[in-house]
From TrEMBL:
NCBIfam families found in the cross-reference section: F420_Rv3520c (TIGR03559)
Protein name: LLM class F420-dependent oxidoreductase
Organism: Natronosporangium hydrolyticum
Boundaries of every Luciferase-like domain copy: 7-318
Alphabetic keyword roster: Oxidoreductase
Molecular function in Gene Ontology: oxidoreductase activity, acting on paired donors, with incorporation or reduction of molecular oxygen
PANTHER family for this protein: 5,10-METHYLENETETRAHYDROMETHANOPTERIN REDUCTASE, PTHR43244
Length: 349
């Protein structure tokens, strides 16, 4: 199991300089990849291209580039460009986002997300391979059939004709799709205790596509708080968990809430959502069970984190990406602590 760094978004608390210094420290420590995210603020490709010019070895991944934000051809162009600029270090993480962002920010209907993703990945792969892009799908038609468009291919020779593609997937059908069409999976709130059913869906997708035995990277992003008191460490993650389980989406359509229910935290998930949507964010955070936090984050002293890293590796994780839940000045120390825990657990760097 390799280690990665999840940078998240650029915010007032995480400046570009902070992201750069963390990425360079992760590279020095031997971390395999740094991931940048986007929602409706900073975009991930710009951050990754900037980091590419100031690093030399660490992989650079989008977690994610939003499918409704770009045509598949634009995504292929961007992936090929960053991969070439970085010397072949780019990993393309894709996701459909959610209805609020897709329809509210991008103006794209959140309809048929599985079918759209399947077609999208197909067109991206055609573009990266410098094939003439001709596609007749339900959601994408290239060229358009009733106009002057012509089938085109990527206008430069990228460093690689195949860039690893990852899907951000939560539900069983999305997981199956990841196994069918992608090279990796980007989970959130991944729990070693509940991984078997999720990975079974991935394997079913691989089998359906005849891809058994193909290398597949399971790459969750995991909050980390290092300290002597596990419960005190968990307090720093409560707000993050409550935001996703309670407020990331509507009452009727919140994928993270549904995940918590499948994990056996249904009663708590209902309470968290009720409080969060009522604007009682602190109470919602307090309602997040310690067991949920402990299963989905790395909490406590280095020795305990080493034990949990071993559990993640045994559950099938191949790249574990650290989300440092620490003040800016302590984030690099968190990376060093996890590297030490990984060495102690003998799981690789």
């Amino acid at each position: 199991m390799q280690l990665g760094l999840f940078l998240g978004y650029q915010t007032a608390a995480s400046s570009p300089a902070h992201h750069l210094s963390l990425t360079q420290e992760a590279e020095r420590l031997g971390y395999a990849v740094a991931w940048a995210a986007e929602a409706y603020g900073s975009d991930s490709p710009s951050m990754l291209a900037w980091l590419a010019g100031q690093t030399s070895r660490i992989g650079l991944g989008s977690a994610v580039m939003q499918i409704p934000a770009r045509t598949p051809a634009t995504t292929a162009m961007t992936a090929a460009t960053i991969d070439t600029l970085s010397g072949g270090r780019f990993r393309l993480g894709l996701g459909v986002s959610g209805p609020q962002v897709s329809e509210g920010w991008h103006g794209v209907r959140f309809a048929h997300p599985l079918a759209r993703t399947r077609e999208y990945v197909s067109v991206v792969r055609m573009g990266l391979a410098r094939q003439r892009v001709q596609f007749d799908g339900a959601h994408y038609q290239l060229p358009l059939p009733d106009g002057p468009g012509k089938a085109l291919k990527l206008g430069f020779h990228p460093l690689r004709s195949e860039v690893p593609i990852y899907l951000a997937a939560i539900g069983p059908r999305n997981l199956r799709l990841a196994g069918e069409v992608a090279d990796g999976w980007l989970p959130i709130f991944f729990s070693p205790e509940h991984a078997a059913a999720q990975l079974s869906a991935v394997r079913a997708g691989q089998a359906a596509a005849g891809r058994q035995g193909v290398a597949f990277d399971v790459a969750p992003s995991v909050p980390v708080v290092v300290g002597d008191d596990v419960e005190a460490c968990a307090e720093l993650v409560r707000g993050y968990a409550a935001l996703y389980v309670g407020g990331m989406g509507s009452r009727e359509q919140n994928f993270y809430h549904q995940l918590a229910v499948r994990m056996g935290f249904g009663e708590a998930a209902e309470r968290i959502q009720e409080l969060y949507l009522a604007g009682k964010h602190r109470e919602a955070a307090a309602a997040v069970p310690l067991a949920f936090l402990d299963q989905t984050a790395l909490l406590g002293p280095v020795a305990r984190i080493a034990d949990r890293l071993q559990a993640y590796a045994e559950a099938g994780v191949t790249t574990l990406s650290v989300i440092p839940f620490a003040p800016a000045e302590g984030a690099a120390e968190t990376l060093r602590a996890v590297a030490a825990a990984a060495e102690r657990a003998a799981i690789g760097g």
